[in-house]
Each structure stands twice: as C-alpha cells, then as structure tokens.
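Intended use. Records like the one below are meant for learning the mapping from a protein sequence to its folded structure. Do not use them to infer anything beyond what is encoded.
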Amino acid sequence: MKILVLGSEGQLGCCLYDQLAETNYQVTYASRHNFDLAKIDSLAKKILLEKPNLVINAAAFTNVDKAESCYEEANLINHLAVVKIAEACKHLNSWLIHISTDYVFDGKATNPYTENTKTNPKSAYGNTKLMGEIGIKSSGCKYLIIRTSWVYSEYGNNFLKTMLKIAEKKEELSIVDDQIGCPTYAQDIAKAIQSMLPKIALNRMNSEILHFCGDTTLTWYEFAKAIFIEASTYELKTPKKINAIKSSDFFTPALRPAYSVLECSKIKNVFNIYPSNLKSGIRKTIKKLG
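Structure written out for the chain above:
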C-alpha cells in the first residue's frame, strides 16, 4: 500500500515516521516545503501525481489563539485545503485519514462526547476543523476522521514540553484548573493509525468518525502535577509551588472547552484500539527528551 503523510514535520507527523519506519508500506512523507496546504491550487494536482492508496492528513493550523485573528489562514488550511485533499482521494478511490479535534464541541457537557454528539464549536479553530470534517464527508471519499485532544509528545510544541521549559526558570507556576480533558500521547495516535492500516488495505471497513484520547480525565493543573512528578524521578528541575487558577484569571483570545472528554468505545469496538495511557506517555516523553 502506498501512503502519503501530510504534515510530516509536525508533532504527529514525526510520530508517524517513527511508527511506520519498520513497516513494509511505501510511505512518502510530505512537509509544507513540498506539499503546502496553503497552496490549494497545486495541492490536489500533487496528490493526483503521487497516486497514494491512503493519505494521512496530520497537517493543520493548530494555533488556537492565532486562529481568532487569522481566521482566513486557519480556514484555508483546516477547511478549504482539506476539501481539496478529500476530492483528490475521491478521484483516486483512495482512503483519507484526517486528524480532527475535541474543539468541535462546546465544552458544556458533563458526560464524554460520543461521535454522534451534536457539534458546536466556540472558537475559530474549532469551527475551521469542523468545516474540514464536513467537507470530507461531502466529498464522497473513503475516510476515517479521528478526533483527539490535548496532544503531547517529545516533538513539536505542546503543554508537557512547555511545562518543563518554564520549570527551568521559575520556582512558582499558576495553571488553569477548571478545564477538563484527556491528554493524548502522539506516539499512541500514530500507533492507532498503524493498526488501522491492514483493514484499510483490504478495504474491509466503512467510513467513520472515531474518537481517540488518553485514559485519564484531569485538568491542566493536574496534568502539570503529573508531569512534574515524573520529571522529578529523572532529577529534572521542578517548581516549588504550583497554583491552581481559573480560566477567567488567565486571558486567552480563544475560548477553550471547559469539558473536553471524548468517549472512545467505538474505536475499541471497530479496531480493538485502547485509549492512550497517561503515565506511560508522560514517562516515555520525558525519557526521550532526556
């Protein structure tokens, strides 16, 4: 099977390289330098020339706050370019695996969001990602849309790496404690995708939206504490004090969902894939960073 990975230099793209390196699939890794999603006029043509059996779209405009002031750019990458990718996959009769987000929901729930829960994004980022999902479904291509949340790893920019960097300089931190989610290790997302490939190669499945996230529900404050507990075992510098604060005390241009927990039983039933383990993911990330 011939696979095209878009966004190969991003957090998930790097993890996909790690997980697919020892497989027998023919994989092309494309970064913005050769497959720029912002250049949608040439994007579809390049995909059609590549003729992949599967496109994995790990590329996105992920700066949640910047999307509020740069909506046109975010919409171009998260929506309009995704439509072009989906149309190319439809033309080639190829599969598309697309990564989406918990931000398509409004965060007002009290129970985990299922794939059938009504979407209601409250940010520009969430809205553009939802429009990308809708565009994929409307294209008629064969697809798997994977919604995930609070992604971290040894690559790219993420909360875990930010906490470790700040802890090197500050003795006291203040972390939001009224937003709830399930941190997800990007290597586990890549592993989940790898385990889907045999069924895709055999074309023995239907198009689906699937949820995949971590196995532990906690706040950013609690996530930070878990990170520093593990960091201390590696003798890394940790803050002497961590303060729990409200979202209202920490201004951001974009609204974040207060409740961002995804229900992941569907992906378990379809592919026998279990949620990402929090403690293992933190440990592996810090070990690799060290």
